[in-house]
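Table S2 (continued). Query chain:
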Amino acid sequence: MAELLKLLLRVAEKAANVARVCRQEAPLFQLLVQEKTGDDKNKKFVQDFKTLADVVIQEMIRHDVGVQFPEMVGFIHGEESNKFENGLGENVTVTVCATEEETATLLASVLDGDHIAASLLARAIHQNPATIDTDTDSLTVPLKPSELGIWIDPIDATSQYIEGREEVLREGHLSPSGLHCALVLIGVYLRDTGEPVMGVINQPFNYKDPTDGGWRGKHFWGVSCGDLNICSLCPPKRGPERGQGLSAVLSSSEKQVVKESLTSLCGPEKLIYASGAGYKILCVIQGLADVYVLSEGSTFKWDSCAPHALLRALGGGVVDLTKRLQSSSGAQDHLTELTYHQANTECRGADRWANHGGLVAYRDCAQLRSIVDALKGKL
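Corresponding output:
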C-alpha cells in the first residue's frame, strides 16, 4: 500500500502539471478557452479541448497505475470516455503510448493536425514530476492491489478551471470560487465492500509564485483501513456540539428548504457557498466548514471517493443523505456511508454511478446528527 500511495501521489502531481501546462502554454490555452462558433465543424473536438484535457489526465493515471500494478487493470475507473471523433469523422481512442512522440502523433489526430499543441501536451504527459515528499515508507496495510479499485476525477470543478479566476487563498478561510477549486481526485476502494480506503487530492492552483508568476500546487492524502487511520493533515480542532456555531458549505443552487433549515440551525453567517463537489468536501477535511450538505443526486463516485477516504482517516465520513433521513434515529452512521463498488442498474450512462441520495460530508458524528435532525421531514 505504501508503494501504491507513492505512485498515486506522483501521478496526481503529473496530472496537476498537465492542468497547469494547458493554461500556461499559449497554443493549449487558446484551445482550452475557445468557444464553438457557427458551423465550424472541422474544429469539433478542438472546441471540446477541455474534455480532451480531462481524458488525457485520466488515461495517464490509468496507464501509469496499470503498468506498476497490472492486477488493477480493469478496476481503474474514470469520469470520461476516451473515444473521440475528429474533424475528419475518424474515431480515435485516446491512450498514453510508449513514447512521447507516439503520444503526440495520436493527440494530433484528435486535434485535427495541431502538432504544436499535441507535442506540448505529450511532453507534459511523459514528464516525470519532482519527488513528492511524504513519509509513507513505514506504512503497512494488509491489503493487496488485487483487492482494490480506483476512481479518478481528472479535473473536478472543470468550469472553474476553464474560467480561470485567480483568487488569493487566505489561510483559514474558504474561498467560494476560482482556479483553486479545480482538483485532481484519485480514490481507492475495496472491491468487495466498496469502502474507500485511500485518497489523494492534488490542488494544482494553490499558490501563485510572485517571482516567476507560476502556479504551485498542494497535495493531501489519507488512508483508512480497519484500525489504521492516517492523514497528511492533522485533525481539525473539535467543533461545537449539536449545532451551536455549526458551519455548513453548500452549492448556491441548493434547495431553498435546505437553506432555510440550515439557517435556523447554524445562523445565516455560518452558511457558506462554494464551487466544486471535491473542493467543498476538502473544505470539511481542512476544517474550513464543519459539514457539506447536498440534497440532489448531482455528484458521482469519482467526485467523492478520494475525499471520503481522507474524512474517514480523520474520524468522519460521507453519508447518503436520503438513506440517513430514512433510517431510525439510533442507526449507526456507517450503515449509510457511501460505497463505490456497485452501479445503480436502474440507470444508464454516467447516472449509474451517481450519488443519487445526495450526501452529507462530516468530521464529527454529533454534527452529522444535528444536520439530520434539522432536515428530518423537510425533504
